[in-house]
Amino acid sequence: MPLRPLTLLTTLLHAYIGLRLLPALASGGMGWAWLLLAALLLSAATMPLPFVGQRRGRRRPLADGWKWLGLLSMGWFSSMFVLTLVRDAGLLLGWLLALAGGWPVDWPRVHSWSAAAVPFVATLVTLIGFFNARRVAGVVRVEVPIRDLPAGLEGFTIAQLSDIHVGPTIRRGYIQRIVEAVNSLGADMVAITGDLVDGTVAELREHVAPLAGLRARHGTFVVTGNHEYYAGAHAWIDELRRLGLRVLLNEHVVLQTRNVKGAQTDEEVLDSALVVAGVTDYTAAHFDAAHASDPEGALDGAPPLVHTRLLLAHQPRTAPAAAEAGYHLQISGHTHGGQFFPWNLFVPLQQPFTAGLHRLQEMWVYTSRGTGYWGPPKRFGAPSEITLLRLVPERP
């Protein structure tokens, strides 16, 4: 949506919040009402700033400061709007029940206290969400049971990063802490499943640079997410390759997971190997027809004797095509687990899985809640994660 209509819409929604809360707050004294009015005016004025700061040619430190303020306002406003709707629904339901039951209710008192509760809870949730978003993501350890897993692959580990969204509020120091946490895991491979950046290479090169320090036995593999295409995917692919990361564009590699020196047959060599395939984002064809996501095509030329196949795909909705192509495990991100309530309730409208490990036909799908965050520095009810997936044999 263009910026002006979006700004008009958010301004009207701020006005709705004010009309619903300010009169009730004023009945208990004007002090809190004035404070909330000032907060709403500040929020309405600053929310567009993350999108206009650069256009006005401000120096970067000032522009970044305005973006921080606008994104914090966005997170607070989101909770304010949802809680105002919840309050209105609760008041309507309470009025209907009181009317049906003939119960006396001190409505001015209910209106006043409920109006005060909305900004209090919204601010508390925003503060908790800020702390959750800015801390280093915790490690989530997941065992994935693979049918007929070769002995050479038992215990193979994949450190997954997803949806970091390097941009206005996620910078070099944040990435360096993630790299240190991943390296401490000693994983066999690192997988970055898209939405790494929210900006151009020129803007963010120095902040992404610490990813060159990722260490794993078989290296780091990357697939594109939708945000890479918003930011210039081709330039980012070149930059990530320059950093030493392997970008998989509808293609695969074969990893040999153990020393096969002295093996007598091809079957012995390939039995302990792993096909790691990666596809472009589900929507990539909208930006570049040559990048149309192709899980089946990513296996072209894969050795048929390699029995275990892993797919890196940004969006969970790639899963049906991946299952048909014969993969054993797909690891994805994109959803952020909803990032903060109540948006997690809407993820299933677009994606088959919101977070965690699920089975689709004969294939497992793991969906990360993401390692960073998008937009507001806020996570509530959907903590960020660095995922350590471990392949184990499926038990009868």
TrEMBL record:
The chain crosses the membrane at residues 32-53, 74-98, 110-131. Keywords: Hydrolase, Membrane, Metal-binding, Transmembrane, Transmembrane helix. SUPFAM superfamilies: Metallo-dependent phosphatases (SSF56300). Signal peptide: none annotated. The keyword Zinc does not apply. Pfam families: Metallophos. InterPro entries: Calcineurin-like_PHP (IPR004843), Metallo-depent_PP-like (IPR029052), Metallophosphoesterase_sf (IPR051158). The keyword Ion transport does not apply. Residues 157-337 form the Calcineurin-like phosphoesterase domain. It comes from the Bacteria. PANTHER family: PHOSPHODIESTERASE YAEI, TRANSMEMBRANE PROTEIN WITH METALLOPHOSPHOESTERASE DOMAIN-RELATED. This is Metallophosphoesterase. It comes from Variovorax defluvii. The lineage of its organism: Bacteria, Pseudomonadati, Pseudomonadota, Betaproteobacteria, Burkholderiales.
